[in-house]
Write a structure and sequence with these properties.
The structure is a homodimer. In chain A, 34% of the residues lie in helices and 19% in strands. By secondary structure, chain A is an alpha+beta fold. The first copy, chain A, folds into two domains: 146 residues, Creatine Amidinohydrolase, Chain A, domain 1, CATH 3.40.350.10; 240 residues, Creatine Amidinohydrolase, CATH 3.90.230.10. The first copy, chain A, has a five-stranded mixed β-sheet with strand order 4-3-2-1-5. A three-stranded antiparallel β-sheet of chain A has the order 7-8-9, with no helix packed on it. In chain A, strands 10-11-12 form a three-stranded antiparallel β-sheet, covered by helices on one side. In chain A, strand 3, helix 3 and strand 4 form a beta-alpha-beta unit. In chain A, helix 4 runs antiparallel to helix 5 and helix 10 packs antiparallel against helix 11. The longest helix of chain A is centred in the middle third of the chain and has 26 residues. The radius of gyration of chain A is 24 Å and the shape is elongated. At the A-B interface, strand 5, strand 6, helix 6 and helix 9 of A face strand 5, strand 6, helix 6 and helix 9 of B.
């Protein structure tokens, strides 16, 4: 969490930190240290042990004040206009940075972070190095990556809120699905065959109404093609009865925190094999949810899920690396989960590799699934906050039959 | 356009180009050179005058083949697994890059592009420099920025498609608005007061149905608060009759091209002042659309818009820099337009600065507006492709009254 920033800088012998970007959208490290959306971005400067300064344009002072940095300055405070009127753009930028760096006492091993154009940023770094600043690159995980891995209570409150809203969307979507009329293997809505496009329209409206943004398409995948965990479902696909429907939704608040949840539903009655798959996924998911505790090794959670699936006769990803090629398309063919916060995929990762342990305040998905090209996919996903006790942010039933 | 890449590299004495990223989403330069979405990203390598190579993971070969690079290789082709099993992650990465660089003949002045974590990328660049690669930073506009500024016919075709879909959403939303019942200054839908949230729900459904993503919230701002060009409209805001409603929608196809259009509507009859503002914006917008021609100086378009507004007695942004502080909140208080493509804001910029001229194939918004804290805002925005003749991608009426 952000309060670990100084400790983490000290641990790595980094004396100064600069994070910048031309917007906070799509720049999670900048969004994180600022703590509020900045439509035109800004420059965050911090010396180890000192309070940070955030520099923004005059019109963004109000936006900046909504964030967590107390000391807000403007580009004008460092004479930006004068510098930019005298030199070409990139030279002016370097001179402007040198001025801020001097005035803010930035020095020593200095990290320059933020998600930015690599080539133009290197131009800046080379200029600053020439000017005498000791800019150092970082191995992964970087300081901010590491700090972002655990969430403080303010972040958890926001994650709770986006969780509630997302669950609201799922609940209202199931309410809509229940209004379908089933005849044999077919589902009808207002006497027309129900299509994925109809459901998408409902989901889109609900997301918007709940002030949620889905940057990547929601997965609403009915039938056999859901055996591909990344198949999103085409608008023209029929929503049939008796087959699994994988509904994986991962929206965020505008420029905010994400949620990520999956439920698998069947309209009418499922095939016996699908029911068996569902029962196994349910068992593994509930078991993994129970294992989410501080200090639990991430790899251990994944391995336990694999073993449990294997005990029911399903191939798993860990067999794939041992040469079982069937596990490429059938069984539990992906990882158990990943971190969620200002992005939809971040540390920690609950996969087969890595010796990390779950830290208090980490927020992870628990999303085992089973896939079979003959029958389709089944996946159940909740988001957990690691704590004492751990907290499930996804308050949705786990019934397959609607 | 992409076919200018070699020419642009030659002009700047850059012999090699590497573009990388862990996904194409949010990494427009990588998305551009690849020409297709890559969920796990990839590494693009090109030597001046040679065809590029794209390196992806085994499972993404199919996705990569949908793009424009003919030579697709996998990480395994360069022995990734072996290297990563022997060295820690970041050392392994540097060694892996050195292997690719050697095998692909990358050398000379080398640019490393893509939107990536600045600090971790610097770590890679420093390692490659140590290994003998001459990595150079670029001033802005970078090679790819410059190449991306003009669109080829394939890109224009995609921009046309997203334009059509966006206009469809606007048309259907106005159809919904027309169903409102007006009583005095109030608008009702199904006998309840019409709120922005009701309209957002409709817009969200329509976006989803048309396979469009709105990463940032649509602006649907009724009444006086629309005098702030960035006010988005809260769900609880009432949609009243007689006041301007600024409807600015800027969606993209998933991982694709963007559209950006604004219309200003009034339910019922507008105030005389709003009608006058609308007439002025309409005149300026139509005039600017006519000025969109190859070689037209960007600054000239902006200045002409300012002059025309001033001739009607409205303050403008160019007066602000001359000290007219009123132009901060009243009048034409922003720029005329900006480029659109794989991002919603890119070169060229139609503002008060910069000596660039419109190039053939550039795609720009033309979006003059007038704002008055007493009455609200009025803005009309189309997207134009610079050509002979130039093409308007926004086929929507420009009537204020619904």
């Amino acid at each position: 969490m952000i309060s670990d920033l100084d400790k983490e800088m000290e641990k790595r012998d980094v004396q100064s930190l600069i994070v910048f970007g031309d917007q906070t959208l799509g720049n999670p490290d900048l969004a994180y240290v600022v703590g509020a959306p900045l439509p035109r971005g800004g420059i965050y400067l911090k010396r180890q042990g000192n309070k940070p300064t955030l520099v923004v344009s005059n019109i963004d002072v109000g936006s900046a004040k909504a964030g967590r940095v107390k000391s807000i300055k403007t580009y004008s405070d460092y004479g930006q206009e004068k510098i930019y009127s005298r030199y070409p753009r990139d030279d002016a930028r370097a001179k402007f940075y040198m001025k801020m760096i001097k005035e803010e006492g930035i020095g020593g091993h200095t990290v320059i972070g933020g998600k930015n154009d690599s080539s133009n940023t290197l131009q800046l770094v080379d200029s600053l190095r020439k000017g005498g600043l000791n800019v150092v690159g970082e191995k992964s995980p970087t300081i901010i990556e590491s700090v972002r891995e655990t969430k403080d209570r303010f972040e958890i409150e926001r994650l709770r809120r986006v969780g509630k809203r997302t669950c609201q969307v799922v609940k209202e979507t199931t309410r809509f699905l229940r209004r379908a009329t089933i005849r044999g293997s077919k589902a009808y809505y207002k006497s027309k065959p129900l299509k994925v496009g109809d459901v998408r329209r409902v989901i889109g409206g609900l997301l918007n109404e709940n002030d949620l943004v889905a940057m990547e398409d929601t997965i609403f995948a009915p039938g056999r093609r859901s055996a591909d965990p990344h198949y999103r479902g085409e608008n023209e696909d029929l929503v049939r009865a008796g087959v699994p429907i994988v509904f994986d939704i991962f929206p965020s608040e505008p420029e905010g925190y994400w949620h990520d949840t999956t439920r698998t539903y069947v309209l009418g009655s499922p095939h016996r094999k699908v029911r068996e798959m569902y029962d196994a996924v349910y068992e593994v998911q509930m078991n993994a949810v129970d294992m989410v505790k501080e200090n639990a090794p991430c790899r251990e959670l994944m391995l336990t899920a694999c073993k449990l699936f294997e005990s029911h006769g399903y191939p798993t990803a860990r067999q794939l690396i041992k040469g079982n090629k069937e596990a490429r398309v059938r069984g539990f063919i992906h990882s158990l989960g990943h971190g969620v916060g200002l992005t939809i995929g971040e540390r920690p990762y609950l996969g087969l590799y890595g010796a990390e342990r779950l830290r208090e305040g980490a927020v992870v998905t628990i999303e085992p699934g089973l896939y079979d090209p003959k029958y389709g996919g089944v996946r159940i996903e909740d988001i957990m906050v690691v704590g004492s006790p751990s907290e499930n942010l996804t308050s949705l039933d786990k019934d397959m039959e609607l």
